[in-house]
Design brief:
The chain has 67 residues and is of the alpha+beta class. The protein has one domain. It is built from 3 helices and 3 strands.
Length: 67
């Protein structure tokens, strides 16, 4: 069974949040911290992990991410 992660990142001042879903949390956080993928997190310097949880139900987590 595949494990997925829903996670929340913040910027240094905790004024901006980013919610994401991935199957490789370590890799994804590395990508955010090193701005390897342009987008919201690199634009707003959101790279501090403040929360994560594991799940096996990716569909519900993607829906949760969008709400």
């Amino acid at each position: 069974m595949q494990i997925y992660y829903v996670y929340i990142l913040s910027n240094y001042t905790n004024s901006t949040l980013y919610i994401g879903v991935t199957n490789d949390l370590k890799r994804r956080i590395y990508e955010h911290k090193n701005k390897l993928i342009s987008g919201f997190s690199s634009k707003y310097n959101v790279n501090k992990l403040v929360y994560f949880e594991e799940t096996t139900d990716i569909k519900s987590e993607i829906q949760r991410e969008k709400n």
